[in-house]
Amino acid sequence: MNAHAALLIDFGSTYTKLRAVDLDEARLIGTGQGPSTVRTDIRIGMRAALSDLEAKLGALPRFRYRLASSSAAGGLRMVTIGLVRELTVEAARQAALGAGAKLVGTFTNKLTRSDVEAIDALAPDIILLAGGTDGGNTEVVVHNAKMLAQIKTDAPIVYAGNRVAADDARELLAGRSLTVADNVMPELGKLASESARDAIRQIFIARIVHAKGIDRAQEMFDDVLMPTPAAVMEGARLLADGAGGEPGLGELLVVDPGGATTDVHSIASGESSSGAIQKGMPEPRIKRTVEGDLGMRHTAASVVEAAGVERIAQQANISVAGVGAMLERIAENVEMIPQTPAEHAFDRALLATAIEIAVRRHAGTVETVYTTMGPATVQYGKDLTRIEFVVATGGAPIHLGDHDALLEAMRSAPSDPRSLRPRAPHLYLDRDYILYAIGLLASVDPQTALRLARRSITPADRAKEVAQ
Amino acid sequence: MPGLGRTLVTGVIGSDTHIVGNRILTMALEEAGYKVVSLGALTPAGEFIAAAVETNADAILVSSLYGQGELDCRGFRELCIEAGLQDILIYVGGNLVVGKQPWEEVEQRFLAMGFDRAFPPGTRTEDVVAILAQDFTAREKVG
Fold it and tell me: Distance from CA of residue B110 to its chain's centroid?
């Protein structure tokens, strides 16, 4: 076993997952899994995962890199604050989601005393305070800094609001852990989340990893670099854009249905393909949305609710009463793995529905307005119609099969012409759940990470052939 | 420079695509030293107000050229009040109504809706710049 190997760790909420990669060959050489033991002692799960990997490999290689991401202990829980809902509130949300955070609270305009209490009750890991364009409104963001000085939790605060009010915020929040970043919306209609995102990531590395007890295992790894969703996003970005002169796949979409939420990432400009007039907030090229009500287990009932029970029943070919029974069984055991054909069919219906709704919410819309010059098309959000590649990651899309149905679910439909979903995408599968590992590896060796991505993330139909 | 340190929001309201006059006005306002947040054509009323809140604008200048201005502008002042901008200066100008109606009546209607000024078609940009400076000065004296 050569020494040119990397160990990529995901301290997840349920499992501790390992991916061992041969760096010369850019190839996955083994996987290991243990329980998530962050609430007791993170080392227990890590040791279990390492021995699982060792059993598969015969012996553990000497690792050149041992990098980790984490979504354990609730993930990176963030509260965001802005001024106007469609503007700095949204810009702050985008910045937090782009940093891989889980949003637990979003506040608009002036914080009240009950808002402050609510923030204390939420006990976020980081608070992002935005509001006002540079030179714009200072009143609200200064008020909010004053209110945040009263919170009891010692959550670090990232200030990314009106530049003109930054000194006031610094004074008001003296004695608190405060990082001042660039404004997430320096001028109206302009997003600038990089600085805030970097600040969030630095705090994550410097403080959150310790606060969550992940650093107890620090002799077992070199660095915890980022929250897992951020690692998945980095992996997606590399796969789309390429590295070191080597091209990637081009614009793409990643769908990541989980037990509680469905994440969608797009790496795409989102510009209109039909000359529509773009209105509303500008869209980040790398965009992540998290649907907190669309998951396969914890939120299965709300997926059924969103789609309508009859539709799920019809898709799964079971009775309406049968849907209720399935949901009860899932509620009793959220770790349930489908066994019977009916359970499989139900999960497939859930999955297709969750993906359909999540992609529809992620994609932009068009609307026709009738002007004196004739009809004009106005676009809100991202135009994803030209997207050629959709990557499905996570356990469900890989194990449940029926990839044609998944493609059908996320594709634009004649019944919904306003939605700018991909028109004719190809489905690629992250069969080895390796996208997060690619994202981590990209930070030290992007070229190898890209080769690994091109090799492991493959068209669904080819995956089918391999499976047979 | 009358505009120094002041921020204005401009745009064409409703389903109106006539952007040229609004652009010319925007350029004149910038030349007068204002910081102008230009929202362009096809702008719903709510977007003017959201932009004014976030940028702490001193005035909103609404253009409407296609004759539907009265419908589009209905409730504009109320939206401002709702957003905490009760004192913001709001102007409207362009071909505000359909057909031949006496300008005085049209102006009265828009003033009754809560606009501080209404401008008929053919207004020169320098007149708008002068009146704006005058209104700001008057407000400073009162305030």
Answer: 11
Phi-psi region of B116 (alpha: psi -120 to 50; beta: other; left: phi over 0): alpha
ipTM score assigned to the predicted complex: 0.82
pLDDT 10s digits, A183-228: 999 999 899 999 999 999 999 999 999 988 999 988 999 999 999 9
> Across the interface, which of A132, A133, A376 has its CB nearest the CB of B17?
A376
Report the side by side order of strands in the sheet with A102-108.
A102-108, A77-82, A126-129, A157-159, A178-180
What's the sign of the alpha-carbon dihedral A31, A36, A41, A42? positive
Give the chain B residue nearest A134 (alpha carbons): B55
Residues of B with CB under 8 A from a CB of A: 7, 15-17, 35, 37, 41-43, 47, 50-51, 53-57, 66-67
The Cα angle at residue B45 between residues B44 and B51, in degrees rounded to 5: 95
Joined together, the tokens standing for residue A157 give 């605060």
pLDDT for A100-158, tens place per residue? 999 999 999 999 999 999 999 999 999 999 999 999 999 999 999 999 999 999 999 99
Query: Is B72 an annotated catalytic residue?
Result: no
Q: Please, which residues have CB within 8 angstroms of residue A66's CB and are 6 or more apart in sequence?
A: A6, A7, A9, A220, A221, A222
Structure confidence at residue B143 as a pLDDT band (50, 70, 90): low
Is the Cβ pair A84, B15 closer than 8 Å?
no
> Helices A300-307 and A320-332 meet at what angle, rounded to 10?
160
Q: What's the whole-number mean pLDDT along residues A3-22?
A: 93
DSSP H helices in A363-434: 395-400, 403-410
Tell me if A283 sits within 8 A of A256, measured CB to CB. no
**How far off is chain A from B58, nearest CA to CA, in Å?**
10
The DSSP call for residue A216 is G
What is the structure's pLDDT at A1? 47
CA dist A15 and A24 (Å) reads: 28
Sequence-ordered alpha helix ranges (H) in A189-308: 194-203, 209-211, 228-241, 300-307
Task: Choose the weakest-confidence range: A228-242, A440-454, B82-96.
Answer: B82-96
- Single-letter code of the amino acid located at A167: D
Residue from the list B15, B42, B54 with its beta carbon closest to the beta carbon of A188: B54
B18 is catalytic: yes
Length of chain A: 468
User: Shortest CB distance from A83 goes to which of B37, B41, B54?
Assistant: B54
pLDDT digits 0-9 by tens, A83-104: 999 899 999 999 999 999 999 9
Interchain proximity A279–B42, CB inside 8 Å: yes
Residues of chain A contacting B16 with CB distance shorter than 8 Å = 371-372
Interface residue of A81, A83, A84 to substitute, partner B, most B CBs within 10 Å: A84
**Minimum distance, in Å, between the CA of residue A190 and any CA atom of chain B:** 12
Q: Out of A137, A279, A369, whose CB is closest to B54?
A: A137
Is there a contact between B56 and A137 if contact means CB atoms under 8 Å apart?
A: yes
Alpha-carbon distance A165 to nearest alpha carbon in chain B (angstroms):
13
**Alpha-carbon distance A243 to nearest alpha carbon in chain B (angstroms):** 37
Average pLDDT over residues B83-90: 92
What's the pLDDT at A282? Answer: 85
